[in-house]
Amino acid sequence: MRLLTFAPAKVNLVLQVGPLRPDGYHELRTLMVPLDLCDRVEVRVSRRPGSVSCRVPGLPELSRPANLAARAAAAFRKRFGTPNGVAVRIDKRIPVTAGLGGGSSDAAAVLRCLARAFAVEDPEALRQIALSVGSDVPFFLGSGPAWAAGRGELLTPFDLDPLDLVLVFPEDPALAIRSGDAYRWLDKLRTRRGSRRRFSRPHAFTLSRVGNDLQTPCLAHRPALASLMGLLRGAGARVVMLSGSGPTVFGIFSGMGAARSAALSIQAEEGRGAGLRVIAVRTVQRLPRVTSWRSPRSASSPSTRRSSRRT
């Protein structure tokens, strides 16, 4: 069986970080929104027992068992006792280690494909598997934009009008930020200031309420990111902020035309776009479906067209 789906990136329009919990995670309240920037995920399930493999063309460092997508497949097989071989292929379009949730989304896409392959209709079991793989993975099993609490797994769907964004991802490895470092920097900053986070109400949202608690400590340790935010402001962004723990920054624009123009101007302006990936995107309301793979040849052949007619 061969199944296809797409794994969307996400941004946190609101990211409020509470104190460190006894389990080592921070209490969160965050508004997460999927984007139309997606990886393509293909899952092949063998009829015979076998192992889990994961291939990411062009990125050999991700083609390994530690990939979240491979870990999700292994956890699914263990939970449901399915020994069938699973081969995962991921065509990456979401920048890697960018603070856009690409790895978590790939993992959730694999779980959605395997649930379809084995006719699993147990949302709670899938959620538990997802959480065991990563805190953001349950979000990508949901229906779309959502407020999240706890580690990020307690989801409340949220109706949000589409927003047009420009993502700016610096490809310089020196600007990469490990999420664990970002939270540690925030804890140190709060200890020094003697401050604590008080969560705001999660039900209302306006652009004036966007914010990311990790932004201040991350900019202090990666000041070059502030100049990227300046590029977005100069291009007309209504709001600019860090995406998750970065290093991607994004701006919210008044429409898709404005976002595309801004992306082009940032890429072209005095060569300052060199070393940057600049992408105009839109938020989406629904996650992609899982479909059975069909070759282009079979889909367009006369025999296929005849067999698809109603009788």
Summarize the entry for a quick read.
The protein has 311 residues and is of the alpha+beta class.
Task: Characterize the structure shown.
The structure is a single chain. By secondary structure, the protein is α+β, with helices and mostly antiparallel strands. It folds into two domains: 2-159, 2-Layer Sandwich (Ribosomal Protein S5, domain 2), CATH 3.30.230.10; 164-282, Alpha-Beta Plaits (2-Layer Sandwich). Helices cover 31% and strands 29% of the residues. The strands form two sheets. Strands 1, 2, 3, 4, 5, 6, 8 and 12 form an eight-stranded mixed sheet that branches. The chain is globular and about 55 Å long. The model is unreliable at 298-311 (pLDDT under 50).
- The number of distinct structural domains comes to 2
Care to count the β-strands?
A: 12
Shape: globular
What are the secondary-structure elements, in order, as H or E?
EEEHEHHEEEHEHHEEHEEHH
| Contiguous runs where pLDDT drops below 50 for at least 5 residues | 298-311
The number of helices is 9
Quickly give the structural class. alpha+beta
End-to-end separation: 26 Å
Major sheet attributes: 8 strands, mixed
Whole-angstrom Rg? 20 Å
Assign the CATH architecture of the largest domain.
2-Layer Sandwich
Strand content: 25-35%
Helical content stands at 25-40%
- Average per-residue pLDDT, rounded, comes to 88
- Tell me the name of the CATH class of the largest domain: Alpha Beta
Would you give the CATH topology of the largest domain?
Ribosomal Protein S5, domain 2
